[in-house]
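To: structure desk
From: M.T.
Subject: fold request, one chain
Message: Could you run this one when you get a chance? Sequence is below, nothing fancy, just the single chain.
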Amino acid sequence: MSVVSVYCIFASAEEAERIGRTLVEESLAACINILGPCRSIYRWQGRIEEADEAPAILKTSADRVDRLIDRITRLHSYEVPAIAVWPVLKLPESYAEWVEMQTRSDPRV
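Reply: Done. Structure tokens follow.
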């Protein structure tokens, strides 16, 4: 079993919820945890910018992560969305099985 966490920053909690719901409905993610708002400071096109954003963590199987990243990129409002994959080293086997079941093409199988 190979489960990964995908960390992503969204422009708003509403965007995170909309995209997250789509990813779960499409079986690309087992779930999304939308975290509290954060304040980001970053350089964009030569200027220092600040923005309130919504971080989120999605759980998926390693074999679905490339499709998940592609889908987030296509749905996201940012030109260059921040998406990072974190390996999960340990977790209960029952949770890993649940993630893998939810990220099958048809999770009812």
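Reply (cont.): The CA atoms of residues 30 and 102 lie 5 Å apart. Let me know if you need anything else for the meeting.
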